[in-house]
């Protein structure tokens, strides 16, 4: 814990931690020492973690990187963080992210973006750590903490993990409680661990997961021992390679990474099978209807009354002006864009044309995966991202759709509610990390982690 606190002090330029909690960390570390001395060694005992700012942590600023939640200190602890602390974990502080987890580059944060610790060869230009869990990824990659929590609505654990050379898993929807995590798109959001190794991910996921009476979408299924699943034995497993993920203009190094990954799994005894997921091309548009729709509904609660920021009002301003001014000041540009798209697709005249259509497409995407698994496929291998980390400022303020295209390989997994993991498997020509994604059967995170363990 002391080593991490010192590392964080020295790495301010990465802007990974946005709230520091050294007093809490030292107290928790002491308690962990006492537990160890008493012969009690729970899974996360004494492990110093960073916590994404989207998680409510009791008495500690929890702002979802938004100005509208300025000054908000929750009265309660999210289920995930309370389970981690119960298992002995130590909180070093809160981590930077895109505002309300909307983004792929960390540039929508009210704190300014976190910075990727990696550089392109000798080029000193700063790169994005990815998003939305960019602070989590930067902190783990730069050894500021041993692991971090992330959340993933459309790729926000897997894309930043791939951009920084770490491991990140989005569990099956319902494996981890969403209680106390600021909601973005409730039918897609899942929390998961971001770690240095697959083994760490297995251990930490075990501590985060499990039934929770406070979240009705959280499954009652018991949590298996994920670490025990890491046997390295994948003989006879069928790994699908979906042809629709082979996009036009895919960089040669991503193609090579993908085929090298398939060769590694084959060498370990798996069977590699070409498969088709025909509705893949509709996933991105469906996601960018469903996610903003749910976001516009979830964000209605930030009204200047219940939480955080309230605008200063002028003479004669009534409640409508109060809402309008508060939200105009409190929400950043990307969040405003999502609220507008979301309310539009949900509005009476357009509901059937957009939202209902997207829900139907979502069902077809889910069915594609079900058919593949019914045909005996155990997991599916794809690239995690279409490129390595891009430069800060390169995409922001350009066409927002260019930024959305980053999520092309990851959003299908959230739409279908499946578990997906990003594993670092190589470097590109400029020395930047690249990751592959494995997609698993629902509730089979153990098996999925084991396949990733072979690729690592
Ligand atoms: N980049 C995607 C978006 O902006 C995914 C975000 C996420 O997974 N939280 O919606």
TrEMBL record:
<comment type="subunit">
    <text>Heterotrimer of A, B and C subunits.</text>
</comment>
<dbReference type="GO" id="GO:0030956">
    <property type="term" value="C:glutamyl-tRNA(Gln) amidotransferase complex"/>
</dbReference>
<dbReference type="GO" id="GO:0050567">
    <property type="term" value="F:glutaminyl-tRNA synthase (glutamine-hydrolyzing) activity"/>
</dbReference>
<dbReference type="InterPro" id="IPR000120">
    <property type="entry name" value="Amidase"/>
</dbReference>
<dbReference type="GO" id="GO:0005524">
    <property type="term" value="F:ATP binding"/>
</dbReference>
<keyword id="KW-0436">Ligase</keyword>
<dbReference type="InterPro" id="IPR023631">
    <property type="entry name" value="Amidase_dom"/>
</dbReference>
<dbReference type="InterPro" id="IPR036928">
    <property type="entry name" value="AS_sf"/>
</dbReference>
<feature type="active site" description="Charge relay system">
    <location>
        <position position="132"/>
    </location>
</feature>
<dbReference type="InterPro" id="IPR020556">
    <property type="entry name" value="Amidase_CS"/>
</dbReference>
<keyword id="KW-0808">Transferase</keyword>
<feature type="active site" description="Charge relay system">
    <location>
        <position position="52"/>
    </location>
</feature>
<keyword id="KW-0067">ATP-binding</keyword>
<comment type="similarity">
    <text>Belongs to the amidase family. GatA subfamily.</text>
</comment>
<dbReference type="InterPro" id="IPR004412">
    <property type="entry name" value="GatA"/>
</dbReference>
<protein>
    <recommendedName>
        <fullName>Glutamyl-tRNA(Gln) amidotransferase subunit A</fullName>
        <ecNumber>6.3.5.7</ecNumber>
    </recommendedName>
</protein>
<keyword id="KW-0547">Nucleotide-binding</keyword>
<feature type="active site" description="Acyl-ester intermediate">
    <location>
        <position position="156"/>
    </location>
</feature>
<feature type="domain" description="Amidase">
    <location>
        <begin position="1"/>
        <end position="449"/>
    </location>
</feature>
<keyword id="KW-0648">Protein biosynthesis</keyword>
<dbReference type="GO" id="GO:0006412">
    <property type="term" value="P:translation"/>
</dbReference>
<dbReference type="GO" id="GO:0016740">
    <property type="term" value="F:transferase activity"/>
</dbReference>
<comment type="function">
    <text>Allows the formation of correctly charged Gln-tRNA(Gln) through the transamidation of misacylated Glu-tRNA(Gln) in organisms which lack glutaminyl-tRNA synthetase. The reaction takes place in the presence of glutamine and ATP through an activated gamma-phospho-Glu-tRNA(Gln).</text>
</comment>
<dbReference type="Pfam" id="PF01425">
    <property type="entry name" value="Amidase"/>
</dbReference>
